[in-house]
Specification:
CATH class of one domain: Alpha Beta
CATH superfamily of one domain: Ribosomal protein L13
Distance between the termini: 44 Å
Structural class: alpha/beta
Strand order of the largest sheet: 5-2-1-6
Radius of gyration: 17 Å
Order of helices and strands: HEHEHEEHHHEE
Shape: globular
Helix content: 25-40%
Length: about 150
């Protein structure tokens, strides 16, 4: 007997588009739900070594929240690869300048750190406001699981 594996063309044709509203949602819980959709864990035909996930559009990223003291204490760090090039940006500054980047970084941290994870994160589109240019894909609103937020 041979084992059936979906091909690349079949996978791309069966992908759904979901819209997730981040208004009032906790960033970590939201990122966990989105990572599960992107990786295909919500798909009954999930295979660990294939990209079985769907596309996700996140709107209202500016209205996502952090719980506890993260709003004052959390810092995003990056390095310019030059000596003394460590740059730090607080959550408040990041929300003001690039609110969509907060969601992207949180989701990217929950995906695999390999080629498969890079392919999954390409299916994530994040927008700071409620408008998005993906109406032609006919996205559906994503129903939350009962135990989330």
């Amino acid at each position: 007997m041979s084992t059936y594996f979906p091909s690349g063309k079949e996978l791309a044709g069966n992908r759904n588009w979901f819209v997730v509203d981040a208004d009032g949602r906790t960033v970590g819980h939201l990122a966990c739900e989105i990572a599960a959709i992107l990786s295909g864990k919500r798909n009954p035909r999930w295979t660990p070594f294939l990209d079985m996930g769907d596309h996700v559009i996140v709107v209202n990223a500016r209205k996502a929240v952090f719980k506890g003291s993260k709003n004052e204490q959390k810092v995003y760090r990056r390095h310019t690869l030059y000596p003394g090039g460590l740059r730090e940006v607080s959550v408040k500054e990041m929300f003001e300048k690039h609110p969509e980047r907060i969601i992207e970084l949180a989701v990217k941290g929950m995906l695999p750190k390999n080629k498969l994870g890079k392919a999954m994160v390409k299916k994530l589109k994040v927008y700071a406001e409620a408008e998005h240019p993906h109406l032609a894909q006919r996205p559906r609103p994503y129903e939350q699981t009962p135990n989330s937020d």
